[in-house]
Amino acid sequence: MNRRLFLKSSALIGCSAAAHPLLNSIAFASAPGENRLVVIILRGAMDGLDAFQPYGDPNLRALRRTISTGPEDGAHDLDGFFALHPALSPLLPLWRSGEMGFAPAVSTPYRDKRSHFDGQDMLEAGTGTDLGEGSQRDGWLNRLLQQMPGVQSETAYAVGVEEMRILSGEAPSMSWAPELRLELSPQAQMLLERVYHDDPLFQAAGAQAMEIASMEIGGEKEEGGPTRDARALARFAADRLNQETRIASFSLPGWDSHARQPQVISRALERLADAILTLRDGLGRNWSRTTVLAMTEFGRTVRENGSGGTDHGTGGAMLMAGGAVRGGKALGRWPGLGEGDLYAGRDLMPVRDIRAYAAWALRDLFDVPRDLLETAVFPGLDMGGNPRILA
């Protein structure tokens, strides 16, 4: 079987290097300059009150019985008011060096329906309205690419069973989503290695994808399949960012914690910490020019439910990391957890649009004009004052 026939039979003709069949839910684009942006979508609604625990609020402990509420439960004090979830302890050195921060009580304009699908669509579309019939369906990173002079799509690509809406739009991008997960036997891997051996476009990506397929985490392959492994996605992203790529986005699932939240969120937070530290290690000196934004579709209820978990809420939290960020602090105002402070009597009240933080990061990283950010990239957004995410 020759290479052309093999690729044609595999439906891979025309794919770029990032379109290797073992890569999943990851997108890239190149941009002028040396600053780098990584957007991580946390699918499933991360509980910001658990990741960054406001133990200084006197109402927190009464609202949560089995969920950690501060240093007394093993969380790490950050500033005398917030504590870091124990599963994020590997990121404490970043906090102390000013390379990690967070914004509590943030959300998109999405309200009340609390649907994962709609919430994620609005987060990635970057719009301020529900995505109804005839509304804007492209993603905010794609619209950013259309507004940045000199930007060329390098490998704007989503690979896997789910679309990365954040990169959908008129700027060139592609996607490839197999109906079934591709599991390769050792013989198939050897065949792919021979197919890609003399092809400069596919050779490096193919070798990395083979590493992803065979990688073991903690002595054994992570449950759920290696293509979703956070370290593998981050390692591949770092490699591309060390070359011409300047913007990357991928998603990490597993944040829906209706029951047994301590176990569910601990695993998810560990994966997030792994991804961030893998990016740092892989980027090397380029870490100093990198900003990582970890965003989720909405928060969770302030009250613990009867299953030891939390339900879909409103206000959440956004994590930011990187050598370019001004970390070591919580950004924004705390709304409080008193009965009269809650949204709809059940959720953390959002005090700032999460899109404003992303917009200011884009303004300071890539010098995108504010008027374009508030109209073309994030339609209808009022960015407000600069929270000064970047150092």
UniProtKB/TrEMBL annotation:
<dbReference type="InterPro" id="IPR006311">
    <property type="entry name" value="TAT_signal"/>
</dbReference>
<keyword id="KW-0732">Signal</keyword>
<dbReference type="Pfam" id="PF07394">
    <property type="entry name" value="DUF1501"/>
</dbReference>
<feature type="signal peptide">
    <location>
        <begin position="1"/>
        <end position="19"/>
    </location>
</feature>
<protein>
    <submittedName>
        <fullName>DUF1501 domain-containing protein</fullName>
    </submittedName>
</protein>
<dbReference type="InterPro" id="IPR010869">
    <property type="entry name" value="DUF1501"/>
</dbReference>
